[in-house]
């Protein structure tokens, strides 16, 4: 299950660098002295923000619930797995919590981002192991998209009968959305996509179009160079002046 946004970065080019990788890697000193790239989202009433920056401040926070509609009109909630949606290298290398067993104490002296309803160490109240900078929703969001229209993995759908098989039976479904994330200010759009993924990842038409376009250009250039070589390559270019 993916969520998509369009036109998000159209008027927010500064978002690309508005973060502090030292903070995200668990550097304790960076918590109280955010990078200047985070401005103006580095301080809140002179209190350092953690995580700082415009990217973190705009964290996507809509929630979704998927229900299967049975023949008797009863609804069955489809389990959505929130762990395992982030890249392994991000989860265990690039994003680390500050040292210490108590996250609340580790983030003492910092403020939450301006648009957040709760601090970073309470992002997932139901799962203490999914809090702080290693919260997987947060990690997925912080991997900055290159284009103004993008898609990010939200959850992995699990089958009720076989919880390790990410498939859905044929039938009718209802998707309930808790609307928290406004997009009117940048004329954006949101969408939800249910997709089948493989070991290579999900559907990405941009890469296919890019490969076909580059391949076509290379093929045409190859034909042009072949014609040039055939027409002019055998000419005698000897510059010696005969006696």
TrEMBL record:
Membrane topology listed for this record: Multi-pass membrane protein
GO BP annotations listed: phospholipid translocation
InterPro entries referenced in this protein's UniProt entry, alphabetically: CDC50/LEM3_fam
Localization, UniProt: Apical cell membrane; Cytoplasmic vesicle, Secretory vesicle membrane; Golgi apparatus; Membrane
Gene Ontology terms: cellular component: apical plasma membrane; endoplasmic reticulum; Golgi apparatus; transport vesicle membrane
Any single Pfam family the record assigns to this protein: CDC50
Primary location: membrane
Keyword Coiled coil: no
Keyword Transmembrane: yes
Keywords: Cell membrane, Cytoplasmic vesicle, Disulfide bond, Glycoprotein, Golgi apparatus, Lipid transport, Membrane, Transmembrane, Transmembrane helix, Transport
Membrane spanning stretches: 206-228
Family to which the UniProt record says this protein belongs: Belongs to the CDC50/LEM3 family.
Name of the protein in question: Cell cycle control protein
Source organism of the structure: Hemibagrus guttatus
């Amino acid at each position: 299950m993916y969520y998509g946004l369009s036109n998000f970065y159209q008027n927010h080019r500064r978002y690309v660098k508005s973060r502090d990788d030292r903070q995200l890697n668990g550097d304790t000193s960076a918590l109280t002295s955010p990078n200047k790239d985070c401005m103006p989202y580095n301080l809140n009433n002179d209190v350092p923000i953690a995580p700082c920056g415009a990217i973190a401040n705009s964290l996507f926070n809509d929630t979704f619930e998927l229900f299967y509609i049975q023949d008797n009109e009863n609804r069955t909630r489809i389990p959505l797995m929130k762990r395992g949606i982030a890249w392994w290298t991000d989860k265990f290398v690039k994003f680390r919590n500050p040292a210490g067993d108590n996250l609340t104490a580790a983030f003492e002296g910092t403020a939450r981002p301006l648009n957040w309803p709760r601090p970073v160490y309470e992002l997932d109240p139901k799962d203490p192991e999914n809090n702080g900078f290693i919260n997987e929703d947060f990690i997925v969001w912080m991997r900055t998209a290159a284009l103004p229209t993008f898609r990010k993995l939200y959850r992995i759908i699990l089958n009720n009968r076989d919880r390790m098989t990410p498939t859905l039976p044929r039938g009718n479904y209802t998707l309930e959305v808790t609307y928290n994330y406004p997009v009117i200010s940048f004329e954006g759009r949101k969408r939800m996509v249910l997709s089948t993924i493989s070991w290579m990842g999900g559907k990405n038409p941009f890469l296919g179009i890019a490969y076909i376009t580059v391949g076509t250009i290379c093929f045409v250039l190859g034909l042009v160079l072949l014609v040039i070589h055939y027409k002019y390559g055998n000419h005698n270019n000897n510059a010696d002046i005969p006696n």
